[in-house]
Write a structure and sequence with these properties.
The chain has three helices and six strands. It has 94 residues and is α+β, with helices and mostly antiparallel strands. The chain has one domain.
Length: 94
């Protein structure tokens, strides 16, 4: 685990959280086909949902404890529903 993890942002609203990851990175890690439709996407990023998809990513990306990474990560909290909820659901396009 190093400074490279600082490029990730965790967005959290009262009901859910998503980790912003570049689409190209999911493909490089060969996990783009494992991400569920409960994650969202825009042109450049996938916003990985907190229940399963973040763990798929963290298990592929880091060595050590995902909890350690989680505690050091940058978080943006919203009092209302995040605009991420308005993005298109993730769809694998292998």
């Amino acid at each position: 685990m190093g400074d490279e993890m600082k490029e990730y942002i965790l967005y959290e609203d009262p009901g859910h959280a998503w980790l912003r990851v570049k689409k190209s990175e999911l493909k490089e890690l060969n996990i783009d086909n494992l991400i569920s439709e409960y994650s969202y996407q825009d042109d450049k990023f996938v916003y990985l949902e907190e229940d399963d998809d973040i763990l798929i990513f963290l298990n592929a990306k880091i060595s050590g404890s995902p909890r350690d990474w989680w505690e050091k990560n940058t978080t943006r909290k919203y009092e209302e529903d995040s605009s991420i909820r308005k993005l298109k659901s993730y769809e694998y396009r292998g």
